[in-house]
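anyone seen this seq b4? input:
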Amino acid sequence: MLGFVAFTLAVTIGIAQDRFEGRRHATLDEANTIGTGWLRTGLAGTLGKPIAGLIEEYARARLAYLVAANPDAATGALAHANTLQNEIWQRTLPLLPAMPAPLASELVSSLNDMFDAELVQRYSMESRVPTETMLGLLLGAALAVGALGYQMGLAGRRQLVLALLLLFMVSGAMAMIIDFNQPSTGFIHVNPAPLEWTIEGFAPSPPR
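predicted toks r here
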């Protein structure tokens, strides 16, 4: 039974770690696509500067979503980012007919990638370890600990130190899994450095 608990713990931690790595990669990809979209607004010349300013604001909204400390803050940042997406697109459409077709295509492609990356990041933040796996782990751990206590009772002697060590390790592993499952409110957070570096790399742009 303890072997089964150990196996389930390993599988569950692996799933949680994969979710965390997915958030890390999504953060890096989104930062890259935002930076590319910002640079390609230069293809529209001076007319692209207002769009670049919107993208800068969009990047800050995405950073606010990533570092939000509670669901309400995340929801507000997400709504602001979605509003900016619509505004960026509406500002871009009138510029396309006057641009050479290859340049217009590159600008549209970079903006599409930037908006798609937002969805990927949001999905990665919402991904959790399946509830059924967590319940199976909890049930298995409870049964294993109960069987261990029963066995100690039959043997007529206690292994207090070993029992406490086992409980500490299992509880610690489960606490880590739960923390991985709370990307916004837990202690283990995705490093927002890629988005911060992208924002730092923005050159000053004129006010809109």
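The CA atoms of residues 78 and 175 lie 28 Å apart. The chain is about 75% helix and 0% strand. kinda curious what u guys think
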